[in-house]
Design brief:
Helix content is 24%, strand content 25%. The chain has seven helices and eleven strands. Strands 1, 2, 3, 4, 5, 6, 8, 9 and 10 form a nine-stranded mixed sheet that branches. The longest helix is centred in the middle third of the chain and has 12 residues. The relative contact order is 0.17.
C-alpha cells in the first residue's frame, strides 16, 4: 500500500499566542501521510522560538519574513515548504480532523492547481450571536457547494483555507498589497483569478473545513465598521438589516457554544 505523500502546512504568525490550538488540531488529523508545519515569523524582528513549538509533536520549522504584506509571508512559507502538497491557514483557524485528507484527496483526483476549503464560524461567546448574512460575509465566504466543484460565483476562496501542489510553484502577488484599507483575502482572490486566467483549474472543497474563531470584540459596532471598510463594502450593507441594532447582531438565548 502506497503511503500518502507528505503535506506542509504554512501559517504566518506574529507570536505564538494562537498557535497551540492550531497545532493541537493538526496533531489529530486523519491524514495518514506526514504533516509538517512552516511557521512564518511575520514581523520586523524574529520573536518566535522554534523550541517552544516542539511540545505539540508536529515537525515544525520557523522562518522569518520582515516585510509587512501578508503575501510576502505566504510566499516565504511556500518557498520553504517541502511537502508534495501545501496547505495555507491562519493561526486562529481550527481545522476539522478531516481537513488535510479532504483537501489532498480533491487536489489529487481533480488535478486542480489551487483549491479552497470551507470556512465556518466558531463563536467564543457564551451565547451564540446571530449575524445577518451581510455581517457574516465580512469574516468568511457564506456560499458553499454541496460537493467539490470549479470555482465560480457565488463561491469564493478564503486565505485561511487554501491548498495547492508544490509543483505548481504558485506565488501571491505582493504588488496587490497596496497601502490603505484592503480586503484581507484579496491575495486569495487575485491568485485564483490569475490561475484561472492561465487556463488552470481552481476548485472549491466544501469538505475541507476550518473554523474561524469570532470573539466578542470582533462584533462591536466599531469593529464591524472597520471590517466593512477593510473589505471595501458599504457600511450600510452591514447596518441596514437591523436599523435598531447597528451591529446587525442578536443573541440567541439558550444556544451557548
Amino acid at each position: 500500500m502506497t503511503c500518502p505523500e507528505p503535506v506542509t502546512v504554512v501559517v504566518a504568525a506574529r507570536g505564538t499566542g494562537a498557535l497551540p490550538g492550531l497545532f493541537a488540531n493538526l496533531a489529530v488529523q486523519t491524514y495518514l501521510g506526514e504533516i509538517d508545519v512552516v511557521v512564518v515569523d511575520h514581523g520586523p524582528r524574529p520573536v518566535i522560538d522554534a523550541t517552544a513549538l516542539r511540545r505539540w509533536w508536529v515537525p515544525t520549522r520557523v522562518v522569518h519574513e520582515p516585510r509587512p504584506a501578508l503575501s510576502h509571508a505566504h510566499n516565504t512559507g511556500i518557498e520553504a515548504a517541502t511537502g508534495r502538497w501545501i496547505l495555507l491557514t491562519s493561526p486562529e483557524a481550527i481545522p476539522a480532523a478531516d481537513w488535510v485528507r479532504s483537501m489532498v484527496t480533491t487536489l489529487t483526483h481533480s488535478g486542480a492547481s489551487l483549491a479552497g476549503g470551507r470556512v465556518l464560524p466558531r463563536f467564543t461567546t457564551a451565547r451564540t450571536p446571530v449575524l445577518s448574512p451581510e455581517a457574516l460575509s465580512l469574516f468568511m465566504p457564506t456560499h458553499w457547494p454541496e460537493s467539490p466543484c470549479e470555482l465560480e460565483p457565488p463561491y469564493d476562496l478564503s486565505g485561511c483555507n487554501l491548498g495547492m501542489p508544490r509543483a505548481e510553484e504558485l506565488r501571491f502577488d505582493h504588488q496587490a498589497a497596496a497601502p490603505g484599507p484592503r480586503h484581507p483575502s484579496h491575495g486569495a482572490r487575485e491568485l485564483a483569478a490569475r490561475v484561472q486566467k492561465d487556463g488552470r483549474l481552481v476548485t472549491v472543497v466544501p469538505g475541507a473545513v476550518v473554523y474561524r474563531s469570532i470573539r466578542p470584540q470582533d462584533l462591536t459596532i466599531r469593529a464591524l465598521w472597520r471590517r466593512a471598510r477593510w473589505h471595501q463594502v458599504p457600511v450600510s450593507r452591514v447596518l441596514r438589516p437591523h436599523p435598531h441594532n447597528p451591529a446587525g447582531l442578536r443573541a440567541r438565548r439558550g444556544c451557548g457554544r
